[in-house]
Fold:
Amino acid sequence: MTEYIIASHAHLSQGLVEALSFLAGEREDVHVLTLFVDGHLDVEGEVQGALDRIPDDRNVIVCTDILGGSVNNEFVKALARRPRTYVVTNMNLPTVISLVISGEGRDPEELIREVLAQTEVQPTFVNDFLAEQAENDDDF
Structure:
């Protein structure tokens, strides 16, 4: 079984989990971690506590907000201490949804690579997208 931790500075992670719940239903395997707000200032302790609440025999996919940020860095440190943990950063809602919805029974590394390769989860400059669509329509 795979568990998910969605972690960020401030309330970004909470918003992503709320949107995920709205779109895909409530999930007991998804955990939210908001740091630097509401008294959650001990990043190391909060990260360790979040990981400690998940049994060691489970895979954990962690999604963080910024590569090189303090939240991401603390989870990267935890990789050496906790096997079966996988960290994805620069998260967005399509990535989180795809990981959670497609993750059941999947090899975590294979799942992550597959999801991150999908163009649907990557940011899109809509102006260029629309121009390309219009250009393609003109070709027919």
